[in-house]
């Protein structure tokens, strides 16, 4: 039990939690924006892969890090536009389209990578975002300083994005429009809103956030692009949106909670690896998330028009 | 496929230009690689390198498919066999039954597959990365270099190919330093460097000052925290000159060249080529210490050298232990 407490109060644990959570925060926010507008975006896994590849490739080809992030976001928007074009005006199945977008974006990323770097044996690297360091304003704060000092700018970008998305969704006319087309598109239409346009815009914006989440992995958490490196993080975000009851603040909480479980299992596995099979530890974050999901989602109010295509003039 | 035609065109052009008869060029063996992972992956990169070298020497025509899903593996194998490949090289670990079935259906084609199981007559030969010998030597170096007496090991999955190297590494470290303790963890993925990095960070936090880098990401954590790392399969010292002390290298060239020669003279049999990954065949080696040449104590170097000699002349055998390694801390 002492070891457990030691782990819980160590700065390195919480620094790890923030690092693991960052791509999940961005991915979950992105998915949340799409779903609040009534569009389920299962393209997330592929869009994150695309963001990871495009962002990294931009930097590798000589762009600076923020340009890489920007290009990743633009690539994400394009993939989002594809998903939106098929599901919103055409009203195709959002499940099937989303899986299709994931397959396409993933394969396209691998293909492009191989096209540009056909003979790579050891993956080439770039200089990633550096931690802000002890000397920075946040890093010199008492108690939480050591945790904050170890984070890179993209983590702060993700935390800021939570605030911005929450504010836009709940405090601005744009956010009201997004929520309205997700709840009752017919009413929104009657108010003179362009339902199709709002939905497409929301999916594109959400997809951009997902792509930046992917880019975090290749530009902050690591310095190279690997096939399969998203490793299911996108799917976790889908579950986190439900956990969050479609609210940005709770999305942050969910991502942090999952990251905490993951950081804990890594440490517990090393403490007493002999006693319990390592698979049990690896399973822990997922099992605990499922439990949390069940507890939290019982009262969840999902967007009424989620996965319901809107056809103007149809009753 | 396009690659194949381009290659054929290039070969024809070169043959014509060099005054070589086309028949001569056509005698080249057709070798195909079927890989479940990208060719950057450490393990497969060694096979790919050996085959590329053989192609550059002009011994073979080589084409390959990478990142083939397990469900697709049989189909791709069949495509190459149907396409007239003389030798198909790949990894059958997750697709043993299917791969062996394909081999039965194409008795004229030679198959050389990475596998944890025995060869299958008449044409299914197997190999594996038996580099436990150099792993033992790197373990000795790690045991001698650690000051905290804690060594961290991060792996993907505990499969025999991984376990035997870890056990040899641990045994080597124990020989030099009986007090050394190990932390072992698995991340449940072959491709998640950020996760491997976090796992390594956690070990370093708990006092590990030498990291065994079975996965990409571990050496990066070691570099950031300024602790030492030991490489596996490939030499990564060029990327981490101040932290990677030594690496146990795998060389597929002896295995591949042996198989190519056997196919050429018609003597290819269902054998276990695992042997050709042993040090005495040049299939495994301890990477040069390079930047650490002067930082590793002389008496430790002498011990490692003596052990290397003993392994090569057969007076010392490194035990092959395929069981899952556990933390001892």
TrEMBL record, chain A:
It is found in: Cell membrane. Pfam families: BPD_transp_2. GO terms for cellular component: plasma membrane. It is a multi-pass membrane protein. One of its GO terms (molecular function) is transmembrane transporter activity. Its main location: membrane. The chain crosses the membrane at residues 6-26, 38-59, 65-84, 154-170, 200-219, 280-297. The keyword Aminoacyl-tRNA synthetase does not apply. Keywords: Cell membrane, Membrane, Sugar transport, Transmembrane, Transmembrane helix, Transport. This is Simple sugar transport system permease protein. It comes from Caenispirillum bisanense.
TrEMBL record, chain B:
It comes from the Bacteria. The keyword Lipoprotein applies. Its main location: membrane. Residues 1-25 form the signal peptide. CDD domains: PBP1_BmpA_Med_PnrA-like (cd06304). The keyword Protein biosynthesis does not apply. Residues 43-265 form the ABC transporter substrate-binding protein PnrA-like domain. Keywords: Cell membrane, Lipoprotein, Membrane, Signal. It is found in: Cell membrane. GO terms for cellular component: plasma membrane. Pfam families: Bmp. PANTHER family: ABC TRANSPORTER GUANOSINE-BINDING PROTEIN NUPN, TRANSCRIPTIONAL ACTIVATOR PROTEIN MED. This is Nucleoside-binding protein. It comes from Caenispirillum bisanense. The lineage of its organism: Bacteria, Pseudomonadati, Pseudomonadota, Alphaproteobacteria, Rhodospirillales.
